[in-house]
Amino acid sequence: MQFKASPRAPKCIDADFSKGRLAALCAWMVVFIFSFGAPVPAQTQIASATVEPPAAAHLFTDEIGRRVNVPVDVKHIVSLAPNITEIVFALGEGDHLAGDTDFCDYPSEARQKPRVGGPVNPNLEHIVALTPGLVLATKSINRRETVEALARLGLSVYVTDPHSVDETITSVERLGRILRAEKTAVPLVEDLRARLADLDRRLAGTVPRRVLFVVWTDPLISIGRDTFIADALRRAGARSVVDTTAEWPRVSLEEIVRLQPEFVVFASAHAGETQHDIDALRTRPGWRDLSALRRGNIVVISEAINRPAPRMVDAIEQLARALHSESFISRDRQSKRAPHVTEEACACAR
Q: H or E segment at 27?
């Protein structure tokens, strides 16, 4: 079982943005930045707390090929990642969530759950004390050592590993089946797939916009072509100008100036605050040479695009509307159907 290494945090953050929201543009990156590098907790202190396997269980194969016995009736769940927490609530199983991580912030009820530490280095004693019937993890952010330690303690640990938008929806579907929440999962999944199919129809024949997706500004960090965010961009009718297999590449601003993306895309929960920071970027060397900034071709979308969870589709719709507004005007007038997203979560500086 090979888990991917987390990228190291930038050594410094530009002081001009220390009070702004650019430090939180990518919720996925924030987890790495504040959690990476801490030692794995010692297991000897909790060896005596080994959990007995459930009497009645179903055998599942998780998304990294591990065979997991999951109790037939899961009463207590512990989530080790923000996107997993979102999925649990979206499936209507929030009442069964016994604990989550310090970075689980959506929905608001997630903040009220007992905390088990950071996703990279959770407190195993706290997890065991919550007596979960199931622990949910994700390969991109949780450590192999954590999963193996919890499994040795007798806990059922199911690991997800989505690399695309479709795989994210499949993860939701599988978790719905594991948690016996099919009544919620089936219509949720059908709705997400129907919305994506509608986007495909609307964007058929359009030319993808060349974009720079900004994860971090100093150093400049973007996304690689094999990430779920890159796939989300493609579903929105966009193509990243950064073409690399690295998941969170540091890129040269000089190279971005040479490539001249048509749009610069940011993700934030607070579009107004992010806009203030973007205004400051326009005055900085290098950034001010980007024609997209000079023309105002800047899109701020929901931070939901950073997490492989149902809300990602909201962010894809926002971005598609911002980049290809002409594909939505005629159909929206005919159907008089309100969009799935709110204006406050999407801002275009033109």
A: helix 27-35
